[in-house]
Amino acid sequence: MGSSDLSIWFFIAIGIASIPTFIFVHIILNRICLGYVKRYCNANGILIGDSCIAPQTDEKGTKTEKTIIHILSDSEEKRIYTFVVWAFGIKQVTERPFDPDTDQPSPNET
How far lies 48's CA from each of 10, 28, 91, 107, in Å? Predict the structure, then answer.
């Protein structure tokens, strides 16, 4: 077993060990973004019902650094709130009435 064989195994081991790191970073970023949304909803009296979270994509379908979070309010007048969030805060908030016949929240709908 030469030194080139060891270096190949070293890079394979590094690649395998990095997978949990990427998963951990994604989970942490999603929790940070959800924390911003929960704080916004608590400050504005919005009761959180169902939610949907997904990465935002651009026109070409490439993922961006932002996350889209859809919240279905749990109040008497149901509304869908769409948040565009990134690691440093909320970028955009839109809201619209909820229509149970036609609304199936799509993560990339803005």
Answer: 47, 20, 19, 17
Q: In the chain, which ranges are E strands?
A: 48-57, 63-73, 79-86, 89-97
What's the chain's length in residues? 110
Q: What are 18-47's pLDDT values in tens digits?
A: 999 999 998 999 999 999 999 999 999 999
Rounded CA-CA distance 97/110 in Å is 14
Identify which of 71, 66, 68 has the alpha carbon closest to the alpha carbon of residue 109.
68
**Whole-structure pTM over 0.85, yes or no?**
no
CA distance 14 to 19: 9
